[in-house]
Amino acid sequence: MKAAVLRETRQPMQIEDVKISKPAPHEVLIRTVAAGVCHSDLHFADGLYRHPLPVVLGHESAGIVEQVGSDVRYVVPGDHVITCPSVFCGHCEHCLTGHMARCNTDEWKRDEKDPQRLSSNSGHMHQFSNLSSYAEQLLVSEHSIVKIRKDMPLDRAALIGCAVMTGVGAVFHTAQVEPGSKVAVIGCGGIGLSAINGAALAGAGQIIAIDMLGSKLNLAKNFGATDVINANDGDVVKMVRELTGGGVHYSFEAIGLKKTAEQAFKMVRSGGVATVIGMIPVGTMIEIHGAELLQEKKLQGSAMGSNRFRVDMPRLVDFYLAGKLKLDDLISSNIKLQDINGAFENLRTGEVARQVIKFDA
Q1: CATH code for 167-303?
Q2: Are the CB atoms for 190 and 356 separated by under 8 Å?
Q3: Residue ranges of the domains in the chain?
Q4: Measured between alpha carbons, how far is 9 from 210 in angstroms, rounded to an integer?
Q5: Is a pLDDT exceeding 80 seen at residue 361?
Q6: Average model confidence (pLDDT) for the chain?
């Protein structure tokens, strides 16, 4: 199969022939139909986060089941599925208490003595985030997929696999936004726009979108933002406090920077909750004023929207097909696999929401 291979950080990926194994008893082979190009992948390609090389990146995808392992009962060939990086075991403490996104067991991995899932003529090929979506096929654990209805367009479904689940889930599950509350979202990329959409679905009374690009702020209005702030115009925290009469109840940081994470905490009112969704570079320290903790303010993180993805994603599909979840406007462009390096350059400019690789295009 063809796949985009990263062999060296800060260097272009190469489209190569990669060998893919056959499904083990609890694995599923999927024909990739669509894969979103996520900023998280760029962190690894640029070396901000480390991963063994060579690797096939990509972790936001949807496709059609081609083969299943001997013990798989959840799906059959022909089923449409969304993938999720949050592989769950189903029996650890996190899974049993409803926090599947925190599952950190590695039983989904193949034993070292067994053939690896991906390889090339030059040797071992690493799998990224349990998936490796920038490839024509996916070989994954049965616990990393969710079956969806077949009338859902798969290029839209792919977005639910990361950006939408992460943004909407942070609102629904991690922060548990209440109806009528005031919300601010810093960063209007795919995840930030999804958080805005989620806040609207949750019934937030005021939703403030914050970004440095006017085009993204205009887009945020389509997703439910009631107010917009261009961060180039001055003190963001001051502007939020003035707009809300003292600060928001909930803030969401969807960029992954020290400065914006600290702003997210400063802009919440007493008793407010700031949730960091963005991937802040490893080793970065976040500074907050200890006295603000006496106001019962909270700063927390969110892992993939604290998802229970086999429950959440089919519901998000239903929301889209009912016209409540705005996936169409999230897609900036459809591209081919060979356009992946150009797509990463677009991510670096920050001017796109989501680019989607369509493998049947």
Answers
A1: 3.40.50.720
A2: no
A3: 2-161+306-358, 167-303
A4: 31
A5: no
A6: 96
Say yes or no to pLDDT of 303 above 80: yes
For residues 139 and 242, give the distance between their C-alpha atoms in angstroms, rounded to a whole number.
Answer: 51
Distance (Å, whole) CA 281 – CA 259: 12
By annotation, the residues acting in catalysis are 38, 40, 43, 59, 162
pTM surpassing 0.85? Answer: yes
d(CA 36, CA 187): 18
CATH fit for domain 2-161+306-358, picks 3.40.50.300, 3.90.180.10, 3.30.1370.10, 3.40.50.1980:
3.90.180.10
Residues 6+ apart with CB under 8 A from 242: none
Give how far Cα 304 sits from Cα of 161, 164, 172, 299, Å: 9, 9, 12, 17
> How far separated are the first and last CA of the chain, in Å rounded?
16
Which pairs from 209-216 meet CB under 8 Å and 24+ separation?
A: 209/184, 209/185, 210/184, 210/185, 210/186, 210/236, 210/240, 211/186, 211/187, 212/350, 213/188, 213/350, 213/351, 215/351, 216/188, 216/189, 216/351, 216/353
Q: Say if strands 354-358 and 14-17 run parallel, antiparallel, or are unpaired.
A: unpaired
Helix segments in 281-326, DSSP class H: 290-293, 309-321
Q: Which candidate, 33, 38, 32, places its Cα nearest to that of 353? A: 38
Residues facing residue 120 across a β-bridge: 123
